[in-house]
Amino acid sequence: MNKLLRIGTRDSQLAVWQATLVQEQLKQHGISSELVLVKSDGDLDLVTPLYEIGVQGIFTKTLDAALLNKRIDIAVHSMKDVPTQPAKGIIQAAVLKRASYKDILVPSSSRAQPSESNDLTIATSSTRRKAQWLNHYPHHRIESLRGNVNTRLRKLAESNWHGAIFAAAGLERIGLRPDNAIELDWMLPAPSQGAIMVVCREHEHTVADACALMNDATTALCTQIEKDFLRSLFGGCTTPISALAELSNDTVLFRGNILSPDGKQKLETAIQVPVQKSTGIGITAATQLLEQGAGEIVAAIRNATHS
User: Fold this and answer.
1) Catalytic machinery residues
2) Which long-range contacts (CB under 8 A, 24 or more apart) does 59-63 make?
3) pTM, whole model, 2 decimals?
4) Residues 230, 228: Cα–Cα separation, whole Å
5) 124: which of 45, 106, 165, 232 lies 20 to 30 Å off by Cα?
6) Got the DSSP string for 138-198?
7) How far apart are CA 242 and CA 233, in angstroms?
């Protein structure tokens, strides 16, 4: 295509890195582009915990508006930040190959492993990470930590916390993963964590076709299953819902859970099916948990949020 594509992105170091990756992949296909930096509401408010803001798409809606107002042609998002229901007039155009989906603990100093016998204060703004951590270590304390990756690392260094939880992909992409980081293999990630999504306006087929050249089919399949699970549980960024779909040897293994914010209640499921029968397994898994009482956990969270 001859058109110069305007790529909308948040202005954090990580977001610009992701948008630059998209720009480089477009260039490999002979498509020219430029970056347009946009500050999101989620970046402007670094004080209020995300679970108190309670807004779906807090990191995406400003870019959505810029896209619909035709200030930009495509927008690049961390896929886990994208609501399960996109804004009207906007469609998913590509999902790039996934990086690490894991969460990691960045200790404030020594590499002391958390255990049942010690008493730690851990920082995170994620209700999912908070709930899973408290389920694993019920006697630990959780503090809220907001801001982009660089801001959170700085706040951790200036605090008296024992550590903070980050997405491995975010730190690795911009070369900031500390050597003493601890992978939390027991913690299931947010749906589509580690994946980058590109969106464009509906009916702009030339732009959509250009973006499709970057699409990774395996990542798109697995993240769709995870998003289906999240949507079917009526969950959003304020609900402690985790999901991971993995493809291996033509088989999809899906694992998912939902917890109460205090970590005391936990419902989980796992499904393994041939890839050709994987359509809808996120919905099936969510239905299993709803039959076990997941709806009561979601209702209690919503009531607490609106009270």
Assistant:
1) 81
2) 59/10, 61/87, 62/38, 63/8, 63/9, 63/10, 63/38
3) 0.90
4) 5
5) 232
6) TTSEEE---S-HHHHHHHHHHS--SEEEEEHHHHHHTT---TT-EE-TTSPPPTTTT-EEE
7) 11
